[in-house]
Design goal:
133 residues; alpha+beta; NE0471 N-terminal domain-like; three-stranded antiparallel β-sheet; 5 helices; 35% helix; DUF2442 domain-containing protein; DUF2442
């Protein structure tokens, strides 16, 4: 068993106080059904919103379930018990609305005039080019 010194404990407590002041943490979260947005207020006075349809596990959720959002731990995440969904605040702030695979699938669903033109051109050539072996 490792024993911590008083100095190590005090240093850890100080690091926690600094993190609490500087790192984004949720103070409050709610679902606005009129705007169809999750609204998150942070401890630093900032707030952000996002549509639930872009977040993994929330895309087809009922409004009643979306309204039951909880803040996890010290404000590092959001939790929906009935949906078994957890999203991290730092992840949401960097634009990560799910796992790597989920985000890759969503990126592939993007629609743009350039993507549509490339798909038409590939279709004229016989479809998607084969990868070299």
């Amino acid at each position: 068993m490792v024993e911590l010194t008083e100095a190590e404990i005090n240093a850890a407590i100080e690091r926690g106080h600094i993190a609490q002041q500087n790192e984004p943490r949720a103070k409050a979260a709610r679902y606005d059904k009129r705007k169809d947005r999750i609204i998150v207020e942070l401890t630093n006075g900032c707030s952000f919103t996002f549509p639930p349809r872009i977040a993994q596990g929330l895309e087809a959720a009922a409004q009643e379930d979306l309204a039951k959002v909880e803040i996890l731990g010290a404000g590092y995440g959001l939790h929906w018990e009935a949906l078994d969904v957890d999203l991290s605040i730092p992840g949401l702030l960097t634009g990560l609305f799910g796992t790597k695979a989920f985000m890759a699938r969503r990126a592939g669903q993007a629609k743009s005039p350039a993507k549509a033109a490339a798909a038409r051109e590939n279709g004229r050539k016989g479809g998607r080019p084969r990868k070299p072996a």
